[in-house]
Amino acid sequence: MRLSCVEVLSENEINKIDKVSKEILEETGVMVLSEEVIKIFENGGAKVDYDKKIVRIPEKVVNDCIKSTPSEFKLYNREKDSYLSIGKNLGYSGTGHNAINTLEANSPERRLATKKDVENFVKIADTLPNIHVVANGYMPQDVFYKSSLLHSLEVMANNTTKHVYFSPENVDETKVLISMLKVISGENYLGNAPIATCQLSPISPLTWSEGTIKAVVEVAKSGIPLSILPEPITGVTAPITLAGTLTSSNVEELSAIVLAQIVNPGTPVIYAQAWTTFEMNKGSALIGTPECCLLSIAGAQLARYYNIPSHCIAFDTDSDMFDEQNGFEKMFNTIATLQAGTNLIVNAGLFATGMTSSSEQLIVDHEIVTFVYRYLEGINVSNDSIAKNVIQEVGQHKDYMTHPQTLKYIRSNEHAAYKVSNRNIFDAWDKSGKMSITENASSLAKEIIKEYQPKQLSREKQEKLKEIISDFESKFNK
Amino acid sequence: MPLRGLRGGKLKVLNDEGLKRIHIATLEILSEVGVRMEYLPALEIFEGFGADVNFDKKIVKIDEQLLKKGLSTAPSRFTLYGKNESFDVKVDTERVYTIAGSSALSVLDLEGNHRPALFEDLVKFTLLQDQLENLHIMHGIVIPSDFEEYGVDRIIFAGVFPYTRRNYYSQSQTGADGVQEQIKLAAVFQGSEDAVRKNPMFSEVCCMVSPLKHEKINSEVLIESAKNNIPIYIEVDALAGGTTPAPLAGTLVEGNANILAGIVLAQLVNPGTPCVYRTSSSIMDMTTGGFAGAAPESNLIHCATAQLAHYYNLPYSGGTGLDAKIPDEQAGYERALQLLSNAMAGDNLIALATGMMEMMLTASYEQCVIDNEIMGAVYRMLEEVVVDDETLSLNLLKEVAAKEQGHFLYFKETAEYTKKNNWVPKLTNRNVWNSWKAEGSKSMREAANDAARKILTENNEPAISREQTDEIMNMAKSFHKRAIEKSKNVQ
What we know:
Chain A is an alpha/beta fold. Chain A has 17 helices and 20 strands. Chain B is of the alpha/beta class.
């Protein structure tokens, strides 16, 4: 039997959070720093104040918009011959994105990430079967800073055929990204078979910057799925209580869902969450805490309550190195988010609170999620697997090593495959160089980077993408 | 033996986007709706590989990962063995071969009678078809009415296998026991059952039921064949508008999902089992409510299915019989349209290519010979127009053009080229009226009747020894008897 979903909120508690969220949306509202978008909200039935830039949304409008948001949709790969059914199947996994540093195994210093690092990271992600969605891993720091994400998308499109996602800062960048996606996909309306997902975040508490909220409008028009990801920090940009943080984040989330549905009813939206708690003593924001796990599980429940696919950060650690803290924090929140029934978890490859990324970490994170997937599958009890005949056939004082059933199940998913964990007995490990999991991952990463040839875009499309980026940069005299 | 097997695949009736959309829809059907499998071991095999199986409803859902795993071991090329090397058919995803007609209940004999098929007909048809140069795989063209129907596949085996030099497309009617007994029958000629498993000279077919159902017997045959390395045609016989959606695209999705589920099962049982992606689907004729295999829409289904099978790098077999009742104009146009479009679309094993009339209910001796003739012309159409220095013939053209009344007839190049390249018809008449009349004003059907009689007079010996032929027949009869008794005990 498959493991059942884990829940932390009762039905009553969810109802309460929902009710209060809608009251806050109607009474306090959210700040929208764009007159143009306030107008759209107003036309959609919101009560707006142009001077104070406040948008208040009546409950009925919110409910209608939740209803018109699809409960499931398809995320296509670049070739449009494969898809992920988000909202239906449990838990897909994606890589991290936008770290600015890289730290290689055995290297004492972290350094700024380059476009080449993005390429290697994406190539590795393309080979890992349990990584379903790919993002850039790093924001390359060796290109013009305003077009860093455009360079990332170029590299992603060329080095993986998997569904990609990205999170732009503003509407100008978003428009260019959409035009690049049209080239990659070969279609003018991306909504027919969306090959990418765009993630956008408000400024907590309850504020939308002009660039981001206009980007929400732009993405909703384009038809590609929109992932709305509030990033509240408990006690700083949200109440210190977990219930308060959940509610505040929910208000932000719903405000953007409303906008997307007003602009283009039926726009696919993913209810996304990135939870951060605050360490008051050190002044640091943390993502690897048990409180974050609780919030993630609650967030998945809220998304399910609204019948909207969910997305959450996972593989989270605040450790700045490859150590035990790194391992246990990541395993903790990967289990929590997946067992919560989150439809997409991301950030494989990131560590140090998401600021640093590495190829080794990506491979180890893939191992973590592979084991979690196996764990969640539970124990398969059927006539065949309970093996009455086999047990009777083998009888006493023999072994099962060469029995046909053993050979048959070795080829199946009964025992999960592993890539880099150390599974040697001590002597063998000692003699083969005492390799750690990070060192094993490092060797595998080098091998993939050297050997693997991803399926690239056509030369014509590659040229066109370069042209779009240089056109954009030329506006800044770059 | 001219096993021509020219390359097809130039005709495309789906564009790339259409192909991908059918593939995506198939993934959706396989992973979300699933296929109903009525044979418990099939459900258990899928479960062992992590598929989502509902044992109460007998539904197997196959996700993309498992589909890919199955397809990754399905071979794109393999050999269907004949009784000697010159009759081996090297199947791949490009070459075009043909398979004999199948399982008619009646015959249209050489005296012009339409009557129930007899065992004697089965042998005669096999001997006749074995002489047709454009036929590559033999099949049991009729079901003999002089034997009890249950388990008659053993009798058919004995009526076909000894009389052909070609690989035999067999069929087990009763499940796993049929496959096992047919291996024993083939072993009489091949020496041992292991020799049969190593180089099987026959193959099996599993017909999946639309919509999306694998019946117990078919899954049994599939699993038993895979275990024994017997190549399997995994077939769907949809009736668009009846058992599948009327629009052809919807019918293609159903067929694709149904067949792929079978191919995955065969590969899970025994990775590397040779599988042919096969369809015999047609549209439903809305005036008769029946099968209309020779309809242009059915040809479209078959051409599109070729593209689908090749999308997965699998050898493809399409083709259906004619709807005409006698070898007439309808038969001629139906067959030409069908064979040409299938061959051009890259049908790797065009099934029911000979003799099948009346929606696969009647087999005609004359039509077998005519179909061979049409296939000869179709093969010529598969050849490219070669353009090189030699074929451009510029020197010759300049030389002849310079003369006042030049022509090309007496040049040795003309004779050589024509001999080497042009198709030489056998039944087709290209005489002017008077010479045609002088030779008896024969219609195509009459010419075919003469040709069939001549072949049958000259070829009446089995392809293997008389002793082995008799041994196979005796064994088949006892297997048949045993199958009938077993079925009665069950009832």
